[in-house]
Write a structure and sequence with these properties.
The chain is mostly helical and about 400 residues long. It is about 80% helix and about 0% strand. The chain has 16 helices and no strands. This is MFS transporter.
Length: about 400
């Protein structure tokens, strides 16, 4: 497969914006928020972090269908992508000015940054069909995903150099990384010209959600998978948001130790995506995803009983394997069960389901931590979502679902 210039430019956006998820949401800023900014608060920093995540993801979920309609029916995808990217960059860089006690400002800036980051991705994803041949889109998407992991690794290594004496410089460093490498995207990515379709974006968004509800309930295997995804994604997203916070609170791991922990986990995420992609191709995707969820159950049980930082490193290896495999195969599963000419509508609904689950998980985790006074009870509670997701996954009859999706008549 020979990549076009536009495809390479498109993938550089993954390289750029993965820095935000890795450094801000998952590894460094999350711990800084809990241990420094919200230090001494009676509610607990973990609970306050859960509120910031919940608010930003609620806004992202509400606006996702509207932004998706705008992406499909305007000639301004690139302009909107630029707007939300700049907003992410500015609000991330401004985190430099928050420190201990600056709770309100820190929450406002993070909420804006996380909402903007998720909103930008709507327009970024909408460019995928324009950057390559239809037969190559899966591989281009996969390469972009892998390139994003590399971007996350690069910023983690840079953060490791700054963390000891200049931790506040990490946030503008992330903003600069996004600015530099997303510029490659904006310089190379060309928006296709076509006639403007005048649409009421709010009506289109509502129609799409209603369309999905109407037809999904008539497609039992697709419905069962989406319920399964909703349940287990609650657990996955919560682990992403709280893994570093858990390590810092339970084992006194320093920021440097946590960065190294996630560098290692990124490596096994590559392995997981590749290995379980092979299982999905050779056997079937439901089996590959089922094994991933069993690994997740082992991860949260092990986390509950984990006693040392060294043991937590080994746990990180297993968690990386689980996250790489489950995220890659979830998208594949939906694609197989969805009619080819209706993937835009159903992938939009899939995104909406994912964002709603991203609200619930951190909120539940924060509440349990606040009430129990110990994150171990919060992490073990996630086993309910992984087991429930696994049970629902086994209600999916894959061959029947694929056949039904190909033959289903939309009326």
């Amino acid at each position: 497969m020979k990549l076009r210039k536009e495809a390479i430019g498109w993938m550089f956006y993954d390289f750029a914006n993965s820095a935000f998820t890795t450094v801000i949401v998952t590894v460094v800023f999350s711990v800084y928020f809990v241990q420094t900014i919200a230090s001494g608060r009676p509610e607990g920093g973990e609970w306050l972090w859960s509120q910031a995540i919940a608010i930003s993801m609620t806004l992202a979920a509400i606006f996702a269908p509207i932004l998706g309609a705008m992406a499909d029916y305007s000639r301004s995808k690139k302009r909107f992508l630029l707007f939300f990217t700049i907003l992410t960059i500015i609000s991330t860089a401004l985190l430099y000015f928050v420190g201990q006690g600056d709770l309100i400002l820190a929450m406002i800036l993070f909420i804006i940054a996380n909402f903007s980051f998720n909103s930008a991705n709507v327009f970024y994803d909408a460019f995928l069909p324009e950057v390559g041949m239809k037969k190559d889109l899966g591989r281009i998407s996969g390469l972009g995903w892998g390139f994003g992991y590399i971007g996350g690794l690069v910023t983690l290594i840079l953060a490791l150099a700054l963390i000891d004496k200049h931790i506040k410089l990490v946030w503008p460093m992330v903003a600069l990384h996004i600015l530099i490498f997303s510029s490659i995207t904006f310089l190379t990515l060309k928006e296709k010209k076509y006639s403007v379709q005048k649409k009421n974006y709010f009506k289109v968004a509502l129609d799409r959600v209603l369309f999905s509800f109407k037809h999904i309930k008539k497609m039992p295997d697709l419905l069962n998978f989406l319920i399964s995804y909703f349940l287990y994604n609650i657990g996955i997203y919560t682990v992403i948001v709280y893994a570093a916070i858990f390590g810092g609170a339970q084992f006194g791991m320093t920021q440097q130790s946590l960065i190294i922990f996630f560098i290692i986990a990124q490596v096994t995420s590559f392995v997981g995506a590749a290995l379980f992609g092979l299982i999905a191709d050779k056997l079937n995707v439901r089996l590959a995803l089922s094994i991933s969820l069993i690994i997740w159950v082992v991860v949260v049980v092990w986390a509950f009983f984990c006693n040392t930082a060294q043991e937590y490193y080994y746990l990180g290896l297993l968690a990386g394997l689980a996250i790489g495999s489950s995220q890659a195969n979830s998208r594949t599963m939906l694609s197989l069960l969805t009619p080819l000419d209706k993937q835009a509508e159903f992938f939009g609904f899939y995104t909406l389901v994912g964002r709603i689950s991203a609200i619930i998980g951190p909120f539940v985790y924060g509440e349990i931590t606040r009430l129990a006074g110990n994150q171990r009870y919060a992490i073990i509670s996630l086993i309910v979502f992984f087991i429930a997701g696994w049970i629902m996954l086994h209600q999916v009859k894959l061959e029947r679902g694929i056949k039904f999706g190909q033959e289903y008549v939309f009326k």
